[in-house]
Design a protein that fits this description.
Layout (H helix, E strand, L loop, with lengths): L2 E9 L6 H17 L4 E3 L17 H14 L7 E10 L2 E10 L2 E7 L11 H4 L8 E5 L8 E5 L2 E4 L2 E5 L12 H4 L6 E5 L8 H16 L2 E5 L2 E3 L5 E3 L3 E4 L2 E5 L8 E9 H11 L12 E4 L12 E2 L10 H20 L5 E4 L4 H21 L1 H6 L17 H9 E7 L5 H14 L2 E6 L1 H15 L9 H10 L1 H12 L2 E2 L5 H6 L20 H13 L2 E2 L6 E2 L5 H4 L16 H4 L3 H13 L4 H11 L5 H17 L1 H6 L27 H9 L2
Parallel strand pairs: 1-2, 2-3, 5-7, 8-17, 9-10, 10-11, 15-18, 19-20, 19-22, 20-21
Antiparallel strand pairs: 1-16, 3-4, 4-5, 6-7, 8-9, 11-14, 12-13, 14-15, 23-24
Helix pairs in contact: 1-2, 7-8, 8-10, 8-11, 8-16, 19-20, 19-21, 20-21, 20-23
């Protein structure tokens, strides 16, 4: 038996942050070395960061990446290390993985299949490498000046054959592993930048397991971690499989800068599988594709499968758990990478703002539980007030929240005691700073001023939208003042359901630098809030829960904007339609691109409790509001991607600001019996 100790690392990188990215890489390499690792796989484009956008065009980006590679090389003595970076070849830019052997560059493999769906836009910057093509480049003197192969190559390192599938390569039908199989590859490396989405981990596990089984290899998968560039959240989750069996899994949603997942693989065991699979001899090798290097793998002891699955991963509420951890980590990284000194939330007492405030608090609890108070606070070293806290205090999370979270309830004459009490109770429950502001005099001044200008009083019968919107907009300056005073990040509180139909006031409740819940629907948010109040997050053990009982008053009320007089009994669903139905129309119409009539057909099957005429009215309303409000979605603050239904027009769902508004299609729907 030939045992090799291998590892996959997850890294929390930042685009163009050369110093911190380099430090994370080197620390991960050193940690792997201390564990006796011979072969380490690091994530895709981990030197530059994956989300550099048009900065990839800058020659300096590639030049700096090579300079970082120079710094990494001395730390790889006695190891085989894969690291990702962009590379210019013949005046074209490629997404490559560099294999380093014993401190020297052995060669570069270029990505063949570029991600171009959803948030991905790789074809804008990179060229896909053509299968079977190989070229050579001469390394700059700082990297030794040698001539190395680039492209569709594999590596024979000390008699062990190593090939690559770079992220998207493994997600396509014609994956490179199928060609590498004929060369008798022993190990497949997959350096990835695979963003989080609900349930996506299981898909990754399937292609890792199936690749290892079908090709008779050990498969090593490494991923990015955290909020790298603003919108995408990376959950980490390193994976190692052999012959169709998962032998190591790593943490997800870690608050650390890096994590290394280590195990041992048996080369002879995978070769046995290939022998039994009977690889055709006439295609057993192609020396043109091979890069050969001497290397001696040190002896190592076998390790039992290390399937690190934290208690929460087994929760029956896995979507709620993933949502809590994904958005909390994203907010934490956004805060520290933007050097903001906390968060400011206009806390209305309703579901949306309550969810945002709760997520701000959860990042404190989860961060301390994950990496400990000292490490957590060190990562927020720019917030000087935190240095004075007693880390041994049992009330430390609330003390941190007092410094990081500022909430303000802003009342007009249309606000009620119910929402005020709900906001105050939640703020106390999470330990945040809380202010109650009376903005009614501002409302009265604006209404009086405009009434005088137009020569008539503004009335609810004639000026409903105008009178609603001024209340939302006049709450913006005050909450921005708190953000300025604190040097903190103002969080917008609009959700995806409302973004779809424009049920938000521009420069009002859309004000903010980040919109953390604009990627999730209102029906799920309400369900999540009830779960967080009563069931809660699973911590170290299944019976150890983190709940927020202070959400009770929020959850006991129907969502309402409170922008009309109280005797109108305004509710969000009364203004729009039932949220679950709205979300289904959005899914059918926007994600699945169905016509109004096709949407109606789907709704009739799912919502038989409603008359067809009512379903037509709601469908008509959705399509008209969707088209009318694209301009609002264009102006939303950046949101986080959580599933395949995001409406962000800059990275996911493009739609014309001006359009025909589905007039013909809606007419066909109404004409249909």
């Amino acid at each position: 038996m030939q045992l090799i100790k291998v590892a996959a690392a997850i890294l929390n990188q930042t685009p163009l942050d050369w110093e911190q990215n380099t430090q994370n890489i080197i620390e991960a390499i050193n940690n792997a070395r201390n564990q006796g690792v011979s072969l380490l796989c690091l994530p895709e484009l981990c030197i530059t960061g994956y989300g550099c956008e048009d900065a990839f065009y800058a020659p300096n980006t590639c030049a700096q990446a090579l300079e970082v590679l120079v710094k990494i090389l001395p730390h790889t003595q006695g190891m085989v290390v894969s690291v990702g970076l962009p590379l210019f070849v013949q005046n074209q830019l490629f997404n490559t993985a560099c294999l380093i052997v014993n401190g020297k560059v052995a060669g570069f493999v270029a990505k063949k299949f570029l991600a171009g769906q959803g948030i991905h836009y790789e074809q804008r910057w990179f060229k896909a490498w053509k299968s079977g093509e190989i070229t050579t480049i001469q390394l700059p003197e700082m990297l030794g000046g040698a001539e190395v192969k680039v492209g569709d190559v594999y590596f024979d390192i000390g008699g062990v054959k190593i090939g690559y599938e770079i992220c998207e390569d493994a997600w396509v039908a014609n994956r490179p592993g199928r060609d590498l199989y004929k060369y008798g590859i022993d190990i497949l490396l997959n350096p990835s930048a695979s963003h989080f989405a609900f349930g996506k981990l299981e898909i990754r596990k399937r292609f890792v397991l199936e690749g290892s089984r079908a090709f008779g290899v050990s498969y090593i998968y490494a991923n990015l971690l955290g909020n790298e560039a603003g919108r995408a959240i990376y959950d980490g989750g390193a994976l190692v499989a052999t012959n169709g069996e998962m032998i190591a899994t790593g943490k997800r949603f870690s608050y650390a800068n890096w994590e290394v997942t280590t195990t041992t693989i048996d080369i002879e065991l995978t070769r046995l599988a290939q022998i039994q699979n009977q690889i055709p001899f006439d295609t057993a090798d192609d020396y043109r594709h091979r890069v050969q290097c001497d290397f001696t793998y040190p002896e190592c002891a076998p390790m039992l499968p290390h399937l690190e699955q934290e208690a929460w991963e087994k929760s029956p509420f896995i979507k709620e758990e993933e949502f809590s951890r994904a958005v909390s980590l994203a907010l934490f990284d956004y805060m520290r990478k933007s050097f903001s000194r906390g968060f400011v939330v206009s806390l209305s007492g309703g579901a949306d703002s309550a969810a945002v405030a709760a997520l701000c608090y959860l990042l404190i609890e989860l961060g301390i539980e994950n990496v400990g108070a000292t490490y957590f606070l060190n990562k927020l070293g720019h917030v000087k007030a935190l240095a004075q806290l007693d880390q041994s205090s049992a009330n430390l999370p609330h003390q941190i929240a007092q410094q990081l979270i500022t909430c303000a309830y802003q009342a007009t004459r249309n606000s009620g005691k119910v929402t005020l009490n709900a906001a105050a109770k939640l703020a106390k429950g999470i330990g945040s700073e809380f202010h109650e502001l009376d903005v009614e005099p501002l409302r009265e001044n604006y209404v009086s001023m405009v009434s005088k200008a137009i020569g008539r009083p503004l009335t609810w019968e004639q000026d409903d939208i105008t009178l609603q919107n001024i209340q939302a907009r006049l709450r913006s300056p005050g909450i921005w003042m708190f953000a300025n005073l604190k040097g903190a990040l103002l969080l917008s509180t609009s959700n995806r359901s409302e973004a779809a139909v424009g049920y938000a006031t521009m420069d009002g409740d859309t004000s903010g630098g980040v919109s953390p819940i604009a990627g999730i629907d209102k029906a799920f948010l309400r369900q999540w809030l009830r779960w967080l109040q009563n069931d809660g997050l699973t911590l170290a053990t299944p019976d150890q829960k983190l709940t927020l009982p202070a959400l009770e008053l929020v959850n006991n009320q129907q969502p309402t904007a409170e922008l009309r007089p109280q005797d109108s009994h305004q509710t969000d669903e009364g203004d729009l339609m039932p949220y679950d139905l709205l979300d289904d129309i959005e899914e059918h119409a926007i994600r699945d691109k169905r016509t109004p009539l096709e949407c109606l057909t789907m709704l009739k099957a799912s919502y038989s409790q409603y008359e067809v005429a009512q379903l037509k009215t709601w469908t008509d309303k959705f399509f008209k509001l969707w088209c009318r409000n694209q301009w609002k979605r264009e102006r939303y603050a950046p949101s986080f991607h959580l599933d395949d239904k995001n409406l962000d027009p800059k990275t996911w769902c493009r739609f014309p600001i001006l359009s025909g508004g589905f007039k013909k299609e809606l007419a066909e729907m109404w004409a249909h019996g």
